[in-house]
Amino acid sequence: MIHITIFSYFFLLQRTFQSRNDRDTDVHHKVKKPKLSATNSEMKRDNKRLKDLIQKELRKPGKNYEQLFQYLNQVKGNADVKRHFADDIITDAEKFRKKLLIERLKTWQKELTNR
Question: Global pTM?
């Protein structure tokens, strides 16, 4: 407790004797970072949520993939983003040996390029 108060006291003394110019160049001065546009960050957040939901659907047993494709159709972004998304799902489907799903995803990708 004593160390904390002594440190605080010296810190306050140091701050009072610094000139105003020194405070502007202080190490604690924060540089503002450019913010991502709201739409871009929202898109990434929504796509991340969809990816998690698709991962859950992928782990489920059975061959009913309708819910998975509904999630896949909700992915935000251009065709390249959706193709990349489908590639990731195909990679994960290969881990679970879901051949039917892999075939359906590849046809979905081809339909996406034909649009």
Answer: 0.62
